[in-house]
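Everyone, study these two lines:
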Amino acid sequence: MNILVLNGSPRKNGNTKQMSEAFRKGAESAGHIVNVIDVCKKNIGGCLACEYCHTKGRGECIQKDDMQQVYDFMKDAEMLVVASPIYYHGISGQLKCVIDRFYSAAYPTKPKRLKKVAMILSSGDANMYDGALFSFKGDFLDFLGLENMGVFTAHGGENGSYKKLQELEKFGQSLK
């Protein structure tokens, strides 16, 4: 399976990155192709709400920035993994810009090969996930109709723990 991981953490070796890497290691050991994009290192602007993609662009965004790389990987992806630290009960702003730009990629239909989605979240508190989970359900499960492969969270002392990283590695290994 071809898997695209969108890492929304600005921290080079932060908790979210560690969790994403554990997942990648497991998935690659099971023979999957995994592409990880660190979206915070990219120049990706927010959606302009110009509707170019739904009119003249026929599904193509008018902005020509690093989101083009994400679109290219999405064409072949069969599974999407959205990974983010929690900021104000939601995903990072950089990752939110990327998800908002899915607007053009999902028009008139989602990418043909994309069937599955999972989410990896890191926070300081166990009660901080509501905004991210709302987005996961609305954006990916309901709107795009993707199969829910799971939501993996770590908070406080779970962040960076051997047990949590092993859980994510095993999840990656278990994918069919």
Observations:
- Residues 15-29 form the longest helix (15 residues).
- The mean pLDDT is 94.
- Strands lie at 2-7, 33-38, 79-85, 116-123, 147-155.
